[in-house]
Design the sequence.
């Protein structure tokens, strides 16, 4: 598990979706385990400054 505090969030929904896709590709459990859709994850990246990446071995 990795927690990040970010200062600059994505500026547009398209940037947020691209970032969410990259995060899911790196750590699929970030969205898979809690049952969060990629679109919902992208929306949250636009508004929160504390991000978590989670991956189980």
Sequence:
């Amino acid at each position: 598990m990795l927690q990040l505090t970010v200062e600059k969030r994505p500026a547009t929904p398209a940037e947020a979706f691209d970032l969410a896709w990259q995060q899911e590709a790196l750590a699929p459990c970030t969205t898979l385990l809690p049952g969060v859709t990629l679109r919902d994850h992208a929306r949250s990246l636009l508004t929160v400054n504390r991000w978590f990446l989670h991956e189980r071995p």
